[in-house]
Amino acid sequence: MSSIRLFLLDAFERRGEMHGHQIRLLADEEHVHLWTDISVGSLYGAIKRLAAEGLVEVVRSERAGNFPERHVYAITEAGRRALHILRDDGLAAITLRPDPFDLALTRLDVERLDELRPTVEARLARLHGMLAETIDLNQKALPFLSVAETHAMRHREHRLRSEISWHEQLLADLPAVTDDELVRAAS
Q1: Distance between alpha carbon 68 and the CA centroid of its chain, in Å?
Q2: What distances in angstroms separate CA 45 from CA 28, 41, 52, 125, 169, one per listed residue?
Q3: For the chain, counts of helices (H) and of strands (E)
């Protein structure tokens, strides 16, 4: 499932013809980098790939003053079909990416077990900071969001709360983790 493709095709379907800079402004306005896996800087390349695939097409070129010429794109019928598939896939797909921390946790250096508690505490502090920032941003955005957008924005809050809970459980169980690692290393 490609979030950037879904965002771009949806933007062209909803907003009509646009050039790359207008799309970038829309992404900035919606703060997609805060609640999706979309990098705003990758939009231009993604538009060109969509055009190469025939999902969007150049409908005209514009030049304003001394600025470079801009291509204005519109969604094609093939793009609309792809958008419907992307929407369905996006609603059905569940994405939970592996955290490298989990692998590192199972490969501890017994000579440095005393560093584990401060490491987990630092992660927990960062997660609390991320949650506070997310709540603040969501509160500021709330008056401008649809009901669906509100749920999408709050999804990050719920995921962060879950991560915090898991880290707190790990922190409470660190003595057992440390003891287990020492026993395994001794045998």
Answers
A1: 31
A2: 16, 8, 11, 36, 42
A3: 9, 3
Q: CA-to-CA distance for 37 and 107, rounded, in angstroms?
A: 29
Q: Which helix (H) or strand (E) holds 75?
A: strand 70-75
pLDDT of residue 128: 98
At CA 51, angle to CA 50 and CA 57, rounded to 5? 125
Cβ atoms of 100 and 107 within 8 Å: the answer is: no
Whole-angstrom Cα distance, residue 110 to residue 101? 16
Are 72 and 14 spatial neighbours (Cβ–Cβ below 8 Å)? no
Tokens of 149: 């957008």
Q: Give the model's confidence band at 10: pLDDT under 50 very low, under 70 low, under 90 confident, else very high.
A: very high
Distance CA 41, CA 29 (A): 14
Judged on CB neighbours under 10 Å (0-12, 13-18, 19+), 24 is middle
- List, as one string, the DSSP characters of 126-172: HHHHHHHHHHHHHHHHGGG--HHHHHHHHHHHHHHHHHHHHHHHHHH
Give the pLDDT of residue 182: 95
